[in-house]
Write a structure and sequence with these properties.
Layout lengths: L11 E4 L19 E6 L17 E7 L11 E2 L10 E2 L12 E14 L2 E7 L8 E7 L2 H4 L19 E3 L1 H14 L3 H10 L14 E5 L2 E8 L3 E9 L1 H4 L2
Parallel strand pairs: 9-12
Antiparallel strand pairs: 1-2, 1-8, 2-7, 3-6, 3-8, 4-5, 6-7, 10-11, 11-12
GO molecular function, one term: tRNA (L-threonylcarbamoyladenosine(37)-C2) methyltransferase activity
Organism: Neptunomonas japonica JAMM 1380
Keywords: S-adenosyl-L-methionine
Length: 243
């Protein structure tokens, strides 16, 4: 069989509150309060291309893992889901370090907006970093895409961290200010993301303070003996302050 090389061009990009890889939930839908906007590029921005899409409650996004597309791949990886200490074949995982760095996510479609030559799709629950290129969009078909009998022994279920999330007084105050200024449900978003436990398996220390970038803000937080998550501070990112 002769291999065929094909070149694909993105049809759009996503505008997301996730500005860096660390902190992004490892699967779609785990942070349902996180909204994002898919903007179709000019060559594809027509009302005709999305006609009928408003009838979908959910859509599939096919995208490029652009942040690590140049990092190469290996036949085996250590999935965080397995504690980072067990190797499995890359095709048995959703690792971004793949022979072809292509991802697939099912997200909730909130609205389709066509105005002044622009086409934008508002979605919820996307696990994509800001500016990720979108290769294709397909409707989610409940009668065929949902398989109640499906099984996968390496990831049979997902369990969020069921521990209290405590916002220190200054962090709580900043949440109130941000919500008032931007209407973002920032406290709910931080809560959903931290319940996914973004910590690397090899860095889970009660003494360590972690940071994630969300929207234009840096959030500092820690987990104490797996009994509580503390949000210490929320500050405007330096690059935003300098602009």
């Amino acid at each position: 069989m002769t291999a065929t090389t094909m070149n694909f061009e993105p049809i759009g990009i996503i505008h997301s509150g996730f500005k860096e890889k660390f902190g992004i939930p490892r699967q779609p839908g785990l942070a349902s309060s996180m909204q994002a906007t898919i903007e179709l590029l000019p060559d594809y921005a027509s009302e005709e291309i999305v006609r009928g899409l408003e009838g979908c409650s959910h859509i599939w996004l096919i995208f490029i893992f652009s942040a690590c597309a140049d990092k190469g791949w290996a036949p085996t990886v250590r999935p965080p889901r397995l504690g980072g200490n067990r190797r499995v074949g890359v095709l048995a995982t959703r690792s971004p370090f793949r022979p072809n760095p292509i991802g697939l996510s099912a997200v909730k479609l909130d609205s389709v907006m066509c105005s002044h030559g622009r086409v934008q799709l508002q979605v919820s629950g996307a696990d994509l970093m800001d500016q990720t290129p979108i290769l294709d969009i397909k409707p989610y078909l409940p009668y065929s895409d949902q398989i109640p009998t499906a099984e996968f022994s390496l990831a049979e279920s997902y369990q969020a961290l069921e521990v209290p999330i405590i916002f220190k007084s200054e962090a709580k105050h900043q949440c109130d200010i941000i919500k008032q200024k931007t209407k973002l449900p920032i406290e709910q978003q931080i809560t959903e993301i931290l319940r996914c436990d973004p910590r690397p398996a090899y860095q889970r220390s009660a003494e360590r303070e972690y940071g994630i970038r969300l929207h234009d803000y840096n959030i500092r937080w820690s987990i104490t003996d797996e009994e509580a998550i503390y949000v210490h501070s929320i500050e405007m990112a330096i690059d935003v302050l300098n602009n």
